[in-house]
Design brief:
The chain is of the alpha/beta class. The chain has a single domain, classed as Rossmann fold. The protein contains ten helices and six strands; from the N terminus they run ααααβααβααβαββαβ. It has helices at about 10-15, 15-20, 45-55, 80, 100-115, 120-135, 150-155, 160-170, 190-200, 225-235; strands at about 95-100, 140-145, 180, 200-205, 215-220, 240-250. It is globular. It starts with 7 loop residues before the first helix and ends with a strand. The structure holds zinc ion (2 copies).
Length: about 250
């Protein structure tokens, strides 16, 4: 019966919710434990609860200002980032939930490269839970803007899926004032190259007023340079405090 049951690729183009349910037609193996996931996603409910929910419910507050890794005793930067010659960051902090383990790399690949958009649904839950615990008072959420042409080429952007979920399902205040100009893809560059490549590449529309506190959200933080460029653009528009928030840190 070709064409009667949708393929994953067709579902993935029709949105994250549809993709989530398509998993029931396409049995999946959990990336973390290797058992049948019993959901439409390569992630089972027990692993989601045990490995992810617990951390999202009690997000650690002390993170390296550069890479988002948990800090043991130091304040500001972790041991790896402490010696980096760098001026002070425009970020007021970075919160990041999970180490970028091989399983998490697999998860991110399935989600954003292979287009299993349904993974965005549980990931949005984690972001919503953690942000509700971390933030005090009123705040806005700004997704890191995709590179130019990405939505035209691929049809979607994973951070926009998260932003939309936060807005529609959780009632967060989401703003999209940032745009990214053409440049080399960040992941192809080293730390200094990334900083240079981002100079002036992220712009903020002057259409305030903006909330005084903003969380810039992204999937992964490595050097923190993208988050810092977003913070710089927002602060130039008068935003008081800008925090980075990511699911994973590398
Ligand atoms: Zn599992
Ligand atoms: Zn660090």
């Amino acid at each position: 019966m070709p064409g009667i049951f949708p393929t994953r690729a067709r579902w993935s183009r029709s949105g994250p919710i549809a993709s989530f349910f398509s998993a029931f037609l396409d049995p999946q193996i959990c990336i973390l434990c290797g058992n049948a996931s019993r959901t439409a996603l390569p992630l089972c409910v027990s692993c989601f609860e045990a490995k992810f929910l617990a951390e999202a419910r009690n997000p650690r507050l002390t993170r390296c200002l550069h890479c988002g890794k948990p800090l043991i005793s130091a304040v500001g930067r972790c041991v790896t980032c402490r010696d980096e010659a760098d001026d002070s960051s425009p970020l007021d902090g970075i919160h990041s939930l999970f180490p970028y383990s091989p399983a998490c790399q697999d998860l991110l690949t399935r989600w954003k490269i292979e287009g299993l958009r349904g993974l965005g649904v549980p990931l949005t839950e984690l972001v919503a839970i953690a942000l509700a615990r971390l933030a005090e008072g009123e705040f806005g959420i700004v997704p890191v803007p995709p590179r130019p042409g990405k939505i035209r080429e691929r049809g979607w952007d994973q951070m926009e899926d998260i932003a939309r979920g936060l807005e529609r399902r959780h009632g967060f205040y989401v703003l999209r004032p940032l745009t990214r100009c053409a440049g080399i893809q960040q992941k192809k560059l080293g730390r200094l190259g990334r900083l240079e490549n981002l100079k002036g590449a992220i712009r903020c529309a002057a259409t305030g007023p903006y909330p005084d506190t903003i969380f810039v959200i992204d999937d992964l933080v490595a050097t923190g340079s993208t988050l810092a460029a977003c913070a710089e653009a927002l602060k130039a528009q008068g935003v008081g405090k800008v925090y980075g928030f990511t699911l994973f840190y590398d």
